[in-house]
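BACKBONE STRUCTURE TOKENS:
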Amino acid sequence: MGTKLIIDTDPGVDDAFAIALAAVSADVELLGVTTVFGNVPLASTTANARRLLQLCGRPDVPVAAGAARPLVHRNPHTAAFVHGADGLSGRSSTLPEATRPLESGDAVSLLVSLLEAADEPVTIAPIGPLTNIAALLAAHPGVREKIARIVIMGGGVERGNSTAAAEFNIWSDPEAARRVLAEDDVPCALVPLDITHRCAIDRDWLAKLAASGPLGATLEGLTADYTAYYSRVLGFDGMVMHDAVAVAEAISPGILRTEPYPVNVDCGAGPARGMTVVDRRRLSRDDPEASPGRTVEVAVDTDLGTLRQFVLDRLSGGPR
């Protein structure tokens, strides 16, 4: 069937592209979607995820709601000023109502049941704050062997966005991020801002998506607030599809080039809170100054044309 995948998400315009990318790919077995607070509050992220799956013709995919707040400290704000008050540029009402009921259990319960039922290891793609994933690993260590890898959109090597140092998903719950990235041993790939910004798409790309059919037109219609924000950031009429870049790597391992580095997360109260500290010194393990713990595969490069075309083809119903 292809990649067995679970997405943990906080839709969000770029999340919408990522969910659709997985939902319409014939080589993906999308087992479930779990939701978390983040770009907008949990009630909106959950409603958006369910409606997006309905748009993609995937009412078979279960959705469960997860954490409504971080593990320790409440985060100061959402990203509604980027994504719109409803998370989808004020256009969530253009999506069809979901026909499948929300799962009665929470996100961690669904993750456990899907992993335990899987006949082979599953890829998890967390593209929001890592609260649900940290809770899963803490409370259910026995599921680790059922996880092939965790492909995370988050962090920044050279930059932040919520602050000068921190990317939004990691900054939203640094304690959870540290648990997953630095304190556990499940294989992880980190897709940071540095690479997602390089994969930004322009108005011509979005016009091709809109012209591709009903799905593409609806997705493009969700981008107004998001592109208005990112056009100022980028300096051209376009947007950054952060989460779709990570899900592309989850679907097609190797579409991003990664390098192994120790990664830590600043959980202090100062200006670096939420910063991903990526140790690129390439010290040997026996060096007394080497960072302790395991390494994380950090995405550092890709063929930009190939990546953009991969996402466009999938969302447009093109080559699989």
About this structure: Residues 3-315 form a domain with the Inosine-uridine Nucleoside N-ribohydrolase; Chain A fold (CATH 3.90.245.10). The mean pLDDT is 94.
